[in-house]
Amino acid sequence: MKRAVLILVLLTVVVALPPLYSQWSESRRIKQIQEVKQQARTVFGDQVETVLSELESGEPPSVVILYTGGTESHLEPCGCYQEQSGGLPRRAHVVDQIRQNGFPTLLVDAGNIFDGKEQIDAKRCEVNLKAMSTMEYDAVALSESDLAYDKAYLSRQRTVATFPFLAPDAARDDFTQPFIMTQTEQHAIGFVVGEACEEVVSQADIVVALGEPENPEHIDVVIRPDEIETTVSEDGRLYVGSKHEGKTLGVLAFWMDTSRKLTRHYTAELALTGDVGESESVRQLLTDFYRDVAAESPSQDARLFTEQLLEQQPKNGYVSATACQRCHEQEYQQWSATRHAFAYETLLKKERYFDAGCVSCHTTGFGYQTGFQIGDSNSTLKGVQCETCHGPGKQHIGNPKKSNIRSGADTSLCLQCHDTKHSPGFEEVVALHRKDVDHSRAPMNLEELLASRIARVGKPTLELFVMSYCPYGVQAEEKIIPIVKKFGDVIDFKLQFIAQEKENPSAQDITPFTSLHGYPEVAENIRQLLIAQEYPDKYLDYILCRGKKLDKSWEDCAEKLGIDAAKIQALFDAPEAEQLFRENIARAEALGIKASPTILVDGHKFRANQLLRASGTPCQ
Question: Whole-angstrom Cα distance, residue 357 to residue 512?
């Protein structure tokens, strides 16, 4: 008896241990990756809420000076990870936040604002000045590097700006001035470059030098365009620096007594990370610029792997992952739910789909004749597909051999996109990341995929396309709805129906729509849309209930869930119900979706059996 128990225990351990070890190993791998990357992703600056709390505590400041410097007209970080700080849309949003708190606020730049000699650089600098004008900057200092640009260039840039350019007397021109006096409700602030003239000294309560002053006498504060430690000199002069590329927004707050004497100050740098909101108007400026650039810039400049043999072969070309799927179904399914497959959707969410520098690493074959082309909304080469790692596959699908495709084992190729700028810490954990692209792994299920999308881009969109009387569609609903409830508001769930509108409906037709299971299905589809509209907290339960009782009256489920059936029927009989259904089925029609159920996650189409581990025959 004891022997039998011992054997049973051993067998239990043998069976249970491998999956438990696998789970522990996977958890440990992910934790290691997260820890290394988190350490590499330095966050610059303080949170907006922290700084606002400091300014709002006690007596309000007499004046708040917000400042930037050394931006070199950097528009925004690439957005590859949450901790990246900076960006004109975020800066504009934060400036508005601080102004809305009622503080007397001034906004200035300490110089080093221009960058680059090409025509595209001039346009980028113009966009920067337009955004700064939208933010209502009070003044911008021109540093020596800025003044090195010729007069025609500086005059052109000045016409874009609604604020003055400041430059020392020795460098003055008709588009610059040596100082500006600004007046808040109670105090006069003078901004100077070079040195403080007598006019400023006699009128200003605080004299602020933008850039390194030639003569610091009579200057209270120096804002430099480079990064320095905040210090106070022996004679009481405050020195602050600026983060390169506009990674932060500097804050200087001053408190003065009734005699206008400075009593104390507060300094901070505001973090402009992904959790900060954006100004819509400034975002639009950048989007328009990216579109213009995409139309003009040669895509060949952004090509990847030009030194690789397969990319150099003139008779080779890109064929897309769907061509690979014919022979590699398991590999395709594993890949289709990974972040690589969704890489292009990340650009759409961040509105960087016109930026060639971003597109090259988020699509396949960009810059090559047969690769992805900017503006091709129907391209089959969106995302980081098989051919990014394995090389263009035209020759391989025609004659499959190991010699005409890459193995994908060379991780140095990964680092062309996952470099220190876009993926800090990646190089240290590239070996651990290999498991993410291991095609022998089981594909993600729906819960895993949604969790991955939430971690990557925030709020993913989940669309379920069904026919309400389709048995396989009902089965999919029974599996999906509990998942939708679990994630709640952190996902955007949309129920879409598959039906058609008759081209020439007759007066005898009950409805202008057709569906596979006839009029009862059309009617049920419309009812479900109306219940979703009128009872958003009950419609999922109604769908679950109705799926089990399609042979009975719909009122039974409505009554059980506290849904006013008479109200829904009245809405059903109104002409607006047909329009609601017409708008809903247009989505499936536009995408050419005819099979129930079909699942889309952030625009990617999946089979129900893959994401739900379900089996059945689609209705179509």
Answer: 48
pLDDT of residue 9: 65
**Is 276's pLDDT higher than 90?**
yes
The neighbour count for residue 472, using CB atoms within 10 Å, is 20
- What lies within 8 Å, CB to CB, of 105 at 6+ separation is 63, 64, 65, 66, 95, 98, 99
How does pLDDT run across 186-235, given as a tens digit for each residue? 899 999 998 888 899 999 999 999 998 988 889 999 999 999 999 999 88
At 401-432, the pLDDT tens digits run 999 999 988 999 999 999 998 999 999 999 88
d(CA 347, CA 377): 13
Could you tell me the pTM of the whole model?
0.78
Q: Give the DSSP H or E segment for 332.
A: helix 329-336
Rounded to whole angstroms, the Cα distance separating 274 from 285 reads 19
- If phi > 0 it is left, if psi is from -120 to 50 it is alpha, else beta; for residue 278 that is beta
How many angstroms separate the CA atoms of 351 and 204, rounded?
44
Mean pLDDT to the nearest integer, 86-90: 96
* CA pair distance 503, 416, nearest whole angstrom: 52
Give CA torsion, residues 328, 334, 337, 343, to 10 deg: -70
Start-to-end C-alpha separation, the chain: 59
Structural contact between residues 187 and 260, judged by C-beta atoms closer than 8 angstroms: yes
Contact 467, 497 (CB under 8 A): yes
Are 315 and 133 within 8 A, CB to CB? no
- Residue type, position 6, single letter: L
* Mean pLDDT value across the chain: 91
Q: How far is CA 465 from CA 53, 560, 561, in A?
A: 47, 26, 24
SS (HEC) of 537-585: CCHHHHHHHHHHCCCCCHHHHHHHCCCCHHHHHHHHHCHHHHHHHHHHH
As a whole number of Å, the CA-based R_g of the chain is 31
- Is 93:279 a contact under the CB 8 Å cutoff? yes
